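Sync notes, pocket subgroup
Present: LS, DG
LS reminded everyone that the earlier model was apo-only. Rerun requested with NAP included. Inputs:
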Amino acid sequence: MNASASASARAAGPRLVVFGCGYVGAATAAWAQARGATVTALTRNPATAAALRAAGIEVVVADLAGSDWHAAIPGGAEWVLNSVSSGGGGIDGYRRSYVEGTRSVVAWARSAGGIGTLVYTGSTSVYPQGDGAAVDETAPTDAAGERPGLLLAAEAAVRGAEAEAGCRRSFVLRLAGIYGPGRHHVLDQLRSGAGEIAGAGSHRLNLVHRDDIVGAIAACFLARPEQGGGIFNVADDAPAPKAEVVAWLAGRLGVPVPRFTGEPAGGRRAVTPDRIIVNRRAREVLGWVPRYPSYREGYAKLLSH
Ligand SMILES: NC(=O)c1ccc[n+]([C@@H]2O[C@H](COP(=O)([O-])OP(=O)(O)OC[C@H]3O[C@@H](n4cnc5c(N)ncnc54)[C@H](OP(=O)(O)O)[C@@H]3O)[C@@H](O)[C@H]2O)c1
């Protein structure tokens, strides 16, 4: 795009700012660009920055938790997405990216004179439930847990932005396990001939396809003006036992079905709990409808490429 085309796109369409422009953030940026939006992204990573610039995105390279970037990004953006990850670094990375990073976004919004709709991609890992429980947004969260507690502090900062930072409305989307193009760990394990897989086969997997996450973010940005913000689970319609998912994939690939170790995956302290993340609120309030309602549709699409 040349300079004058870029200027007219800026004048015509909304402006999206993406903080932490990785797997979900970049896909959301592409969605917004397709609607004529101007996109600014903040990332720490110079290689990511180069790829984003090549895609026509304005990039600010900085750590979200600092404030040196505040002056570089004007306020007033209609759409703001915070989709940082912990960026590695264990518990300190959690605190820095999620809590300090989100508080920095709120401070920027306040000092920059306000923003429109703020969306934060949180996680269903704030919930402690297992034993097959159905978990909606009214379920208790694990505020005492070290990592869940930090995620909940980030959520609180996001929700507080309406009162404290001139944010018109703020949404927390608690995401289930993300999969999609280029991110399909179980499929990769089966393709590489893994004889065993971590976790408990009887525990249900709560998944959501990347494109359905973008759909949920878009539903927040495009919600009618009188729609307020809130907290929403974002998971597909049909959590299925991990053993069922793996057997289905193995059948599609024509490989033997691996056994489950019953042990946590490397780096995890516990196996993924067995529960059903309920997405009814996102469907009813946001009008969000997953394009991939179960693992079958999502993986069938991935296998077709
Ligand atoms: N993966 C899952 O299954 C899952 C499930 C539930 C929720 N979530 C949440 O969903 C969100 C989006 O996930 P994703 O898969 O899109 O993550 P991702 O691909 O790792 O992208 C996150 C981006 O945030 C950047 N980042 C991290 N810390 C930063 C900081 N302090 N300052 C600036 N940039 C920073 C990373 O950049 P660098 O390259 O510099 O590190 C990366 O580009 C995350 O909040 C994640 O926790 C994920």
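DG: Residues 20-25, 42-45, 48, 63-65, 83-85, 87, 96-97, 101, 121, 123, 175, 177-178 surround NAP (CB under 6 Å).
LS: The two ends are 30 Å apart (CA to CA).
Action: DG to write up.
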